[in-house]
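Summary of Year 1 activities. Much of the first year was spent building the evaluation harness for sequence design. The harness presents a backbone, in tokenized form, and records the residue chosen at every position. We chose the following record to illustrate the format because it has been used consistently in internal testing since the harness was completed.
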């Protein structure tokens, strides 16, 4: 497929992968990568959904999508295009390369019947014009474990925590992860092969820390949680000053989760626990004695786009009964533009075309931001991003769109 600027967009062929990969790595800073990482990524690549843009014989753009399934409010797991591997050569900026790839990826997602698309944005300013809204946020922290203590729930002492080689307990950890997927909007059901990404451990990415370590929590001989982490020894004028970096933690019950946090707080010679990419309502915040000494901070994480407004809004449930007509603006995917009547509650929903008068005017970008329940329509309206056309419709709909737990896109891609 040609573009408006003399370049040509094609589906990636397997024999082109190495050059495609090298172009992508250069676009993201050119850091070292391992052969294991390259081969794993190649095995996971869906070549029929991966794109290359050529200027003659020169590769100038890459992008792709993975066929995921995302949990939405109510627990349904909905087909989702995981947009990824996006790069444009610095020599070809502002020539329509990115737009052509975004056009093709969304057209393909629609053809495959995927109501949603999602991505992580390396530069947040880029993707709003293609209809993606910031829908999930992540919590990072640096906890002073020498001065912060934990108040543990009942049953914590009944949980056994033990070290285990990460590969040896991978299947058990995946069972824990799979059980958690329906509980939180934004989580992705793990596709076969993706479990191996958790074990990638190239020395070039450790920043001087240890190889990946793992502990599991057990109750009654059954694994009920796990934590993957690294340690880095340090010494200061007053003695040991090591750092634990948490890579991943999941647990099925409060006692198992608390037992894992207690372990991480108590590793010998470590005084700082770095926590990255956790849900913003993560439970540890209610266990610690002093949140200020944890230096919590949040930032944008997952971006969501409604590929099919009717199917997407019908797929989730709503906290309170809702009956509202949206006037949707979507210049990039015009099949979504126009009026849609959404009716639903906690049992289910439907969203159909209508000629009725609109209650709320909203762009597809704002619908994407609010879709998982982590961003309120009221807050978007306060920023002028949503307009109320029927008095009372905004508050009613904003409450209905909420989620009991914060959405979290934990699965990288």
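For this record, the design step produced the sequence shown next.
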């Amino acid at each position: 497929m040609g573009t408006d600027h003399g370049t040509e967009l094609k589906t990636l062929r397997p024999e082109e992968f190495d050059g495609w990969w090298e172009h992508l790595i250069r676009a993201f800073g050119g850091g070292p990568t391992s052969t294991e990482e390259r081969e794993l990524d190649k095995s996971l690549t869906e070549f029929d959904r991966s794109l290359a843009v050529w200027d003659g014989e020169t590769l100038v753009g890459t992008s792709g999508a993975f066929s995921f399934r995302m949990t939405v409010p109510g627990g349904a797991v909905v087909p989702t295009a995981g947009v990824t591997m996006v790069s444009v050569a610095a020599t070809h900026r502002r020539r329509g390369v990115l737009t052509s790839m975004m056009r093709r990826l969304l057209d393909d997602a629609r053809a495959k019947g995927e109501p949603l698309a999602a991505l992580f944005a390396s530069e947040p300013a880029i993707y709003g014009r293609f209809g993606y809204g910031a829908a999930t946020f992540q919590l990072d922290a640096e906890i002073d474990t020498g001065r912060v203590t934990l108040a543990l729930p009942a049953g914590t002492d009944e949980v056994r925590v033990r070290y285990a080689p990460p590969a040896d307990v991978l299947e058990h950890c995946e069972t824990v992860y799979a059980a958690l997927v329906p509980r939180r909007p934004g989580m992705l059901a793990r596709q076969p092969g993706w479990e191996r990404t958790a074990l990638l451990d190239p020395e070039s990415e450790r920043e001087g820390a240890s190889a990946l370590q793992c502990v599991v929590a057990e109750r009654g001989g059954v694994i009920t949680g796990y934590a993957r982490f690294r340690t880095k020894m340090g010494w200061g004028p007053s003695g040991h000053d090591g750092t634990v970096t948490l890579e991943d933690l999941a647990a099925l019950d409060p006692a198992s989760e608390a037992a894992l946090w207690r372990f991480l707080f108590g590793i010998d010679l470590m005084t700082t626990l770095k926590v990255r990419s956790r849900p913003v309502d993560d439970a540890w915040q209610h266990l610690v004695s002093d949140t200020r000494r944890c230096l919590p901070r949040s930032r944008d994480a997952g971006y969501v786009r409604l590929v099919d407004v009717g199917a997407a809004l019908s797929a989730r449930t709503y906290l309170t009964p809702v009956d509202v007509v949206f006037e949707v603006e979507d210049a990039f995917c015009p099949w979504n533009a126009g009026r849609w009547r959404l009716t639903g509650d906690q049992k289910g929903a439907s969203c159909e075309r209508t000629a009725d008068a609109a209650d709320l005017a909203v762009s597809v970008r704002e619908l994407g931001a609010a879709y998982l329940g982590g961003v309120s329509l009221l807050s978007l309206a306060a920023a002028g991003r949503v307009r109320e056309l029927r008095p009372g419709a905004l508050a009613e709909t904003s409450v209905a769109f909420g989620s009991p737990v914060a959405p979290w896109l934990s699965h990288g891609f």
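The longest helix spans residues 97-111. Quantitative recovery figures across the full test set are reported in Table 2.
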